[in-house]
Amino acid sequence: MATFELDNEFVRKLAELLGETGLTEIEYAEGEKRIRLSRAAPAAAMVAAAPVAAPVATAPVAAPVAAVPPAQHPGAVKSPMVGTAYMAPEPGAPAFVKVGDTVKVGQTLLIIEAMKVMNPIKAAKAGTVTQIQAGDAQPVEYGEVLLIIE
Length: 150
What we know:
- Helix content is about 25%, strand content about 30%.
- The N and C termini lie far apart (about 50 Å).
- It contains 3 helices and 10 strands.
- By secondary structure, the protein is α+β, with helices and mostly antiparallel strands.
């Protein structure tokens, strides 16, 4: 097995790009060589979600629902990759799903474009779409909640 010479300047440039773009992970491959840089999501992003849930939690009836953040919800469909989410098969076409739709196992929910490849994201369980977190043509991170199926 050949040794892999690490270019420190290149790693620094990737780290700068990571910071400039706000991404949490970058992977670069050239032939057999592969490098992946990742960092923890900023704590501020997690704190920003708390004020949104706080007003809902003040209502006595909504308290049990608000107690489960989207990332912890058992019906959360999370992004398996970094890319751009598309809610429809092509511009101007109807969305694959919308809030209130009933979905079947294996049904396409949305597409994530990563490195010029369109990757369909399919339902792992049947149910009703109760929330859509991802925006059309918006970037998504690995592990980010795209939508919730109950």
